[in-house]
Structures are given as C-alpha cells and as structure tokens.
Design a protein that fits this description.
Layout: H1 3-26, E1 32-38, E2 44-50, E3 63-65, E4 91-96, E5 102-103, E6 110-119, H2 129-142, E7 146-159, H3 182-187, H4 189-201, E8 206-211, E9 217-222, H5 228-248, E10 251-254, E11 268-275, H6 292-312, E12 334-336, E13 343-347, E14 354-357, H7 366-383, H8 406-415, H9 417-423, H10 425-444, H11 448-455
Parallel strand pairs: 1-6, 12-13
Antiparallel strand pairs: 1-2, 3-4, 4-6, 5-6, 7-9, 7-10, 7-11, 8-9, 11-14, 13-14
Helix pairs in contact: 2-7, 4-5, 6-7, 6-8, 7-9, 8-10, 9-10
Length: 458
C-alpha cells in the first residue's frame, strides 16, 4: 500500500466515505462514475466504475498502469521512461481528490471524480504532477509564505464537422473578428449557460467570460484562490467540462496553442501574489511602483523562463504562438499594465498587487506550469534577484528573446539544474523523454505542405 494513503489512514477513508454517501443521497439516479486522471498532456484517462464499488477508491483498490504518466500525446507508451514494459508495466493506484466527486458536465446520470495515480509501493521519487506541485507549496510554507493565484484560459470553439486533420471549421458567427463583442457571447449563450452550470456543480469559481481576438476564440477567468492545488484541479477540470459542453451544443472546443496560422494563439495567463504568515500581500506597495519583493519575483520568473519554456510550451505547435505582434510575448521583458511583455504588473499598489505570467500556452499542464512559475518566484525571492528596466512601449531591444524553436527549449530544460531540482530528477527525465519522442515522431512525418511545395516541382 502506498505510504501516502497510509499517512491519511482512517481519517481520509472516513472523509471520502462521507463525501460519497452525501453524493449518493443527493444523486440517487447515478449508477456509474468516471474515475479521471489527467496525463502529462492534460488528456483525461481512467475508468468507469459502478458507484456501489466506488468506496474502494479510498483504500487503493482501483488500479491502472502507472505508465499512464508517460504516455505520448497519441496515447502510446514511450520507450525510455522506465514506466512501461521496461519495468514490467506495473500498476499504479488511484487516489481520490477529496471534494471533486460531482456530476458529469453533460449527463445527470453519470458521476465523475478527479484522482491522482500513485505507485503501489511508496517512493521518494515523485511522478504525479500534483504531488510535485504540493512539494513546491511545502517549500513556500516552510518560509511562512502562501501563493495566491488565478488563471485565465483561452480556447477556440469550432464546428463539430472539423476533422482531426483540421483545419478548424468556423462555428456560426465565427467567421468574423468579434473581439470584446457582447453579441458574440449572446450567440453562444446556451454553451455559456452549460459551462456556468457545470462549474457551479463542481464548485469551480469562474469569474468573467469574454470574446477574444481570434475568430471563435473565448477566454474564461477564474477567481483568485489561496488553495493552489485546488486551483490546478479546477483548471484541469475546466478543460474537461468545456470540451464536453461544446459537444453538447454541436461544437468542439480546442486548447491547442495555435490552431490557425492567421489568428492569435490561445494562452493560459496566471495572476500571482504571495501572502506572509499574517495574510499580508508581500508584493503590496504604497505607490504605483513595484516594491522590492515584487521586483525579486519578477526577476526570478524572467531569469527562469528559458529553463521552463518547454513546460510552458509543451508541444511543436506551441512555438507558433511566439510571434511578434501576436498578443504573445517574445522577449524576457516585463512592464506595468502592458500586454506585450512576458511578465505584466497589473497592480503594484495595495492588497491587489500581483504579477501576471503571460508565457504559457493553453495546451500546458496546469500542475506543471504552476510548479515552474512558483519555482521562478521562489528563486527570485531567495536570491534577491533584480530585473532589468521595465518596458515602456514593448519588449526592449536588448532583452533576451524567448525561443520559437522547440528543440532549443527542450535543450534548455534538459541542461537546467533549476528544472531538475524543481521537478525532481525522475520526472525531469520522464518529461524530456516523452517530449523528445514526440518531436522525433513528428520530424519523421511528411506534412501536406511539403507535397504542395515539392512533389510536382522537383
């Protein structure tokens, strides 16, 4: 039995059984439950189980191959991770996340629960991204600090006639640029209502909804939370419910970073502040200029961006976002209320002082990206780092550039001691192995554009 389950012992089991009993009492129509676990690529994996058997989830009685942590984006085992047949493809055990048992977003007769997948035998080498993030939060706690954050995620709605080969086909009303247009929201009110209802059922605290710059692109913001693990849970559950709500209304939703070459990419922005033991925001200034701690944090985040860009931009397509004049950052720059930089300071004065991290694509894993951002903040605070001058009108000419080349980002991650200590050597190796395998497989494919360019001309 996994030591992490043993440590919670009877109290954990009692809490889960109480949650299950309450759910059954309120939802007697539910007979099946989806046990869900997000893999590295944010794809929900898992099993369907009779609700009458769900209780054994609390004692390690439901299993799935632990190699699910190292699946490719196509859902195949990746050689070299040490998780699959190389070591016998052993099982892992599902561990439920308390408070996540809810109805399915589109089926009132079906339940769902978010879980972690942990090894059967206890290990000091953390592999589940949620456990890795929890270890980072422990580092903050040991310093008497607590991060507070909110996420903003962008996505595209497209016709359900869109094939996996693409390109995205527009939804009704989705052929025109409708940035900030209320009628764009009105046209999708049924979808938005479904999203709000599903979020309410899962206690996901969404805030504002806006029509974004891209044709058929929307952004939904979460409320700030000092429970970072739960915020990451909400971000991954939100992706799941948006996709299913879109299907319910005859559409598809995509969190692909750059689904259309002539349209803006989709990002996942993170607003972050840090509280001390008294609940005071350590970034709060008494004027409109960032205080010393906020400058430390900004410098740490900027300094670590090359180390972590392969986390913030995990796939080949992710790097198509990093183009000039595309509403995505291209330099290691920062500024006050400036959306052309990598790290924006929306407010410096008072309790709402915070930084906004604008580099991540919507395709990034929430647990991994939050871990990396927090590592940058902690690095800046502990090393008392100082950033270059703030950008006034955009990225400064001498600012170091973010790369738009995937292999370069992977090499930076591979060579980073900060990344190894942030994720642990084991997961650092698993992540890189999976990404290199993905890169190699894509490189071996011949895209249609090469046939168009060369087949009849050369």
């Amino acid at each position: 039995m996994n030591a992490k389950i043993d440590q919670t012992g009877n109290e954990f089991t009692v809490q889960f059984q109480a949650e299950l009993a309450s759910f059954v009492s309120k939802n007697p129509q539910v007979e099946q439950v989806h046990i869900m676990f997000p893999d590295m690529n944010c794809t929900m994996r898992g099993k369907s189980i009779a609700i009458s058997a769900l209780g054994k989830l609390a004692t390690g009685g439901v299993k799935m191959p632990f190699s699910t942590h190292g699946l490719s984006v196509w859902g195949r085992d990746v050689d070299g991770t040490g998780l699959a047949l190389e070591t016998g493809d052993p099982d892992g055990i599902f561990v439920p996340i308390l408070g996540s048992l809810s109805l399915s977003p589109t089926n009132a007769k079906l339940g769902q629960i978010l879980t972690q997948l942990r090894p059967v035998k206890s290990s000091d080498e953390l592999v589940d991204p949620r456990d890795i993030l929890a270890a980072m939060l422990k580092r903050f706690s040991n310093l008497g600090l607590k991060p507070v954050l909110a996420t903003e995620v962008e996505f595209y709605l497209m016709s359900d006639q869109t094939t996996a080969a693409g390109p995205p086909l527009p939804i009704p009303g989705g052929r025109a640029q409708r940035v900030n247009e209320i009628d764009a929201l009105v046209d999708q009110q049924a979808f938005i209502d479904s999203v709000r209802q599903a979020c309410a059922a899962q206690n996901i605290p969404i805030d504002t909804i806006i029509a974004e710059y891209g044709r058929g692109q929307f952004e939904i913001n979460m409320q700030h939370s000092d429970d970072v693990l739960q915020a990451a849970d909400h971000a991954i559950l939100f992706r799941h419910l948006v996709r299913h709500c879109a299907k319910k209304h005859g559409m598809r939703a995509s969190f692909m970073a750059k689904p259309m070459a002539d349209q803006p990419g989709s990002g996942l922005h993170v607003h972050l502040s840090v509280l001390d033991q008294d609940g005071t925001n350590i970034f709060a200034s008494d004027n409109d200029q960032a205080n010393a701690k906020l400058l430390n944090a900004v410098a740490g985040v900027l300094n670590s961006l090359p180390d972590f860009q392969a986390i913030f931009a995990p796939h080949a397509n992710s790097y198509r976002r990093f183009q000039a004049h595309s509403h995505a950052p291209t330099n290691l720059s920062w500024g006050y209320d400036h959306r052309g930089v990598a790290v924006r300071i929306p407010e410096a004065n008072g309790k709402n002082a915070r930084l906004e991290h604008r580099v991540c694509g919507a395709d990034a894993n929430p647990y991994l990206l939050l871990n990396a951002i927090l590592a940058g903040v902690l690095h800046g605070l502990e090393a008392n780092l100082q950033p270059n001058s703030a950008a006034a009108t955009g990225a400064l000419e001498d600012d170091e550039r973010l790369t738009n080349v995937w292999p370069i980002a992977l090499t930076s991650l591979e060579n980073s001691q900060l990344a190894k200590s942030t994720f642990g050597a084991r997961y650092h190796d698993i992540y890189l192995t999976c990404r290199h395998a993905e890169m190699d497989e894509l490189a071996a494919m011949i895209p249609d554009i090469e046939y168009q360019a060369y087949l009849h001309r050369i």
